[in-house]
Amino acid sequence: MPGKKRIDIIDQQFGTMLVLKEVDPGSNYTRMFLCRCVLCETERVYSMNLLRKGRITSCKSSACRKDRYKKSQESLDSNRVDGIMPSALIRKTRENTATGVKGVNVAYTKKGTKRYRAFISIGGKTHRLGNFDDLDAAILAREKAEAEYHQPILEKAKLQKARKEIE
Ligand SMILES: [Zn+2]
Fold first, then answer.
1. Which residues fall inside 5 Å of ion ligand 1, going by CB?
2. pLDDT digits (tens, 9 = 90+) for 77-108
3. How far is the CA of 38 from the centre of ligand 1 (A)?
4. Whether 58 contacts 39, CB under 8 Å
5. Were 35 and a residue from 17, 50, 53, 104 both cysteine, which residue would form a disulfide, CB within 3.0 to 4.6 Å?
């Protein structure tokens, strides 16, 4: 067809799909292209329209999705320090309403005496720090525990991050 330039999309990549070649459109009224997923090598045929509209982002195969999920988990894992996500330690959690202090709960003895129970959670484990008559004593116990449990991890995370930036 002279004068009418056919648009060439061979070798172009749409999302994870690389266009390999034009194929026989069969009963379709539009040009069809064979594409291959650059992640998992799944081959699929898409119409020119779908590709050019930016509607194709990946092969959508379950194996590929699983693989991408695994990769994203791996990159998350690389931020871990001793299996713990440092961001979980600094992330603001809802403060305990009874005392207004994170890591300090109110507990009552059998006789009904009010006591303050200090605890710290790390890596899904909760460490009990003891029961105290005095709120300040409970807070102090919690602060000591933060220095003992959280601080080394936050320090390591800082180093890890600095090292990553150098690489
Ligand atoms: Zn794929």
1. 37, 39-40, 42, 59, 64
2. 888 888 787 877 775 555 656 787 888 888 88
3. 7
4. yes
5. 17
Q: Per residue in 92-148, pLDDT tens?
A: 555 656 787 888 888 888 898 999 999 998 877 889 999 999 999 999 999 999 999
Residue 36's domain comprises: 9-59
Q: Are residues 93 and 157 in the same domain?
A: yes
Distance (angstroms) between ligand 1 centre and the Cα of 67 equals 9
Last residue of a domain, one of 43, 59, 75: 59
Q: How many distinct structural domains can be found in the chain?
A: 2
In this structure, is residue 71 part of a structural domain? no
Gap from CA of 86 to ligand 1 centroid (Å)? 32
pTM of the model: 0.53
Phi, psi for residue 106 in degrees, rounded to 5: -95, 135
Alpha-carbon distance 38 to 13, whole Å?
Answer: 9
